[in-house]
Each structure stands twice: as structure tokens, then as C-alpha cells.
TrEMBL record:
Pfam families per the UniProt record, alphabetical: adh_short
Superkingdom of origin organism: Bacteria
InterPro entries associated with the record: NAD(P)-bd_dom_sf, SDR_fam
Protein name (record): SDR family NAD(P)-dependent oxidoreductase
The organism's taxonomic lineage, starting at the top: Bacteria, Pseudomonadati, Pseudomonadota, Gammaproteobacteria, Pseudomonadales
Signal peptide: none
Length: 232
């Protein structure tokens, strides 16, 4: 049986780094994102990367995408949920639609993906679900009301899944990123910051890979990743 990893939320940042890391380990990687052109370019570059165009906030479409993945690549043993989004407003300024959009991408779509992938994960002796989170899951600042409340709900969902699925040897881990990810747009916005100010996507991917390799007797549920200079 081939090793298959599903990465949801593939863009030119942590998502791409996750794809590259698992391709390097010989996995067949199913890449899910909305941008067909971007996925096609990455699939052309990486022989083990396979494009599946999908907007996971279209919840009804998620089961069929996972069925396609299993048919084309085999049963997944790893799900990396890297999709996320945020509306940064206070509770008075944010609309109910803002709150709903944050909940849909951070919580509802994670539920849909988990329900769709579990029959595949259960075909393996060991499997993993790793969720990319943010420090907003632990604290709600004044202007992060929609985002922080959704991320806090996502963290509680991850904890519930970890307790449910652990006895089945399905490791659920939540990775909290606390800092600014190194991207062209963040470099442009912060031109005076030194290299070590930024979170490196390749380093995030390495940490996620490590989580999927942990022995069940010493699983990590939550992992904080931040540059050494980040205030916390």
C-alpha cells in the first residue's frame, strides 16, 4: 500500500512546504486548494504531487474529493489541515457573515474533511491528522474576534478528535504558529526585519513531519512554533 498524504490548503507558504517535505519522503501527496493553475505548476515540478482542485468551504463537495483521492492514489494515512482564514475586526465591527466565514473554513471544513478521510485512515495500523493553528486559538485580542473565536473552536475540536481517535492509533496534533511566516508579501511589508524574525515554512514542515513519526507512547497533542525572538 502506497503512503498517501492529503494536504488541504496548499499555497506558496506552509502548504507548499508540507507538500515538498512529504514528497521527499516518498509519499504520494494529494494537494487540495482552489487555484487550479498553481496546483498544476506544483504537480509538474514534483512527481509525487497530485492536484485536486477543491474549495473545502463547499462542504458538500468534500466527500467526493476524498473518494477520488482514494481511487487514484490509495487510502490516505496522513491528513494535514492547513486551510485557514481570518477576518480581523472587533466583535462590534464584524458582521455575522464574517463570523460564519471564519467558522466555516476553520471548523466546519475540518469536520467535513475528517469525516471523509477517517475510513481511509482506519485502513492503516497508524495514521495522523495534523492541524495548522495560530496563537489566536489561545487568546482573543480586541480586533481578532471572528478569527480567534473560530481558532479556539478548532483547537477544542482537535482535542476532542485526539481523545476519540487516539485508541485507534490515529494521532491528532494541533500546531500553533506564533509569528510571521516568511513570504514575499510579509518581507515586502516588513523590509527592515532580519531573517530570524520570520517563521520559515520549511521548518514548520519539518516539525509536522516529526509529529507524524512519533511513537504512540509519547504523542504530542499541541506544538507551539515560534521564532526565538517572538514575544509570548
Amino acid at each position: 500500500m502506497s503512503n498517501v498524504c492529503v494536504v488541504i490548503g496548499v499555497g506558496p507558504d506552509n502548504g507548499e512546504a508540507l507538500v515538498r517535505r512529504f514528497c521527499d519522503e516518498g509519499y504520494q501527496v494529494a494537494m487540495l486548494a482552489r487555484s487550479e493553475d498553481y496546483l498544476a505548476r506544483l504537480a509538474d515540478e514534483l512527481p509525487n504531487a497530485n492536484a485536486f482542485v477543491c474549495d473545502v468551504t463547499d462542504l458538500d463537495s468534500v466527500p467526493s474529493v476524498f473518494a477520488d483521492i482514494e481511487q487514484e492514489l490509495g487510502a490516505a494515512s496522513v491528513l494535514l489541515y492547513n486551510a485557514g482564514g481570518g477576518v480581523f475586526k472587533n466583535a462590534e465591527a464584524a458582521s455575522l457573515a464574517d463570523f460564519e466565514a471564519n467558522w466555516r473554513i476553520n471548523v466546519a471544513a475540518l469536520v467535513a474533511a475528517t469525516q471523509a478521510v477517517l475510513p481511509q485512515l482506519r485502513q492503516h495500523d497508524r495514521a495522523s491528522i495534523v492541524i495548522t493553528s495560530a496563537s489566536a486559538a489561545l487568546r482573543g485580542r480586541a480586533n481578532t474576534a471572528p478569527f480567534a473565536s473560530a481558532k479556539a473552536a478548532q483547537r477544542s475540536l482537535a482535542q476532542s478528535l485526539a481523545r476519540q481517535l487516539g485508541p485507534e492509533r490515529i494521532h491528532v496534533a494541533n500546531v500553533i504558529l506564533d509569528g510571521v511566516v516568511d513570504l514575499p508579501r510579509t518581507r515586502e511589508a516588513m523590509p527592515d526585519q532580519p531573517d530570524d524574525f520570520f517563521i520559515q515554512p520549511a521548518a514548520v514542515a519539518e516539525a509536522v513531519w516529526m509529529l507524524t513519526q512519533q511513537a504512540p507512547s509519547a504523542w504530542t497533542f499541541e506544538l507551539d512554533l515560534r521564532p526565538f525572538g517572538e514575544t509570548w
